[in-house]
Specification:
By secondary structure, this protein is α/β, with parallel strands linked by helices. Helix content is about 40%, strand content about 25%. The strands form 4 sheets. A 7-stranded parallel β-sheet has the order 6-5-4-9-12-14-15, sandwiched between helices. It has a 3-stranded antiparallel β-sheet with strand order 1-3-2. A 3-stranded antiparallel β-sheet has the order 10-11-13, with helices on one face. A hairpin with a 3-residue loop joins β10 and β11.
Length: about 250
């Protein structure tokens, strides 16, 4: 098997399963594990995967993005811990923006129900989940709905957000790095996120450790724009400290 074909198959497996295991793919391709590691290094250098101990996971890009269906089954315990910790950072906020994506949706579901809140979101699943909470007023942004994430984008959503002053925004991203900031594959999504960031007094990033050190196609924020970062404990403490030097408090849960 040619090296380029082998790399394509490794990348396809990573994207289909959410990660690739060196030992398993080596058996499937009938090659040595060192050959797989060499291929993964090359894919990592091209920004297509991010290597981890014993394997790698795919990096989202302009040509590849996971959908909500996949995300709702990926690293759920970690996301729930992140969501609870992020909801505890609510403070005295009365108006809250909830970004699209599974982790922000879990944050929304973790918000207190014993006090009045106004939640602004582009996410249909989040709006539906909160619509049954009597103390919460839900404002759903309009626009073109993306099938991958079931969230609204384009100028309708941006115009609505531009007229709002929001106390706190909970933001997600497909990648976050100290050099490139917060990124996403789709510029239309990035534009909504950027406007939410501009309209909010406080901004908190929520995301699992695998988002760190990853850069996608469109940048919508700097790390320094954030008040806090909430992630899981698999992010090394030393790396969390490096992010904190840029301004935000970093919580590993």
């Amino acid at each position: 098997m040619r090296a380029d074909e082998r790399k394509r198959r490794i990348l396809a497996r990573a994207r289909a399963d959410g990660r690739v295991d060196v030992a398993e793919i080596a058996v499937e391709l009938r090659v040595a594990q060192e050959t797989v590691r060499r291929d993964l290094r090359a894919l990592d250098e091209h920004g297509l995967v991010r290597r981890t101990h014993g394997g790698a996971f795919p990096v989202e890009s302009a040509g590849y993005e996971t959908g909500l269906k996949f995300r709702t089954h990926s690293m759920v315990p970690e996301k729930r811990r992140i969501a609870r910790a992020a909801a505890e950072r609510l403070g005295d906020a009365e108006t809250v923006f909830i970004d699209e994506g599974h982790t922000p949706q879990l944050v929304a579901e973790s918000l207190p129900t014993g006090r009045p809140l106004t939640v602004v979101t582009a996410s249909l699943p989040t709006a539906a989940a909160l619509s049954e909470v009597p103390s919460t007023t839900v404002l759903l942004l309009g626009g073109r709905v993306r099938g991958l994430t079931l969230a609204a984008v384009d100028h309708w959503a941006i115009r609505m957000l531009a007229d709002m002053v929001i106390d706190l925004a909970y933001l997600g991203a497909n990648g976050i790095s100290r050099e490139q900031g917060l990124t996403t594959p789709d510029p239309a999504v990035g534009a909504v996120k950027a406007q939410a960031l501009a309209s909010a007094r406080r901004r908190i990033f929520v995301g699992v450790h695998s988002r760190f050190g990853v850069s996608s196609f469109h940048r919508f924020a700097r790390v320094a724009d954030l008040e806090a970062i909430v992630t899981d404990s698999a992010l090394p403490a030393a790396e969390a400290h490096r992010y904190s030097l840029l301004g935000p408090k970093v919580f590993r849960v």
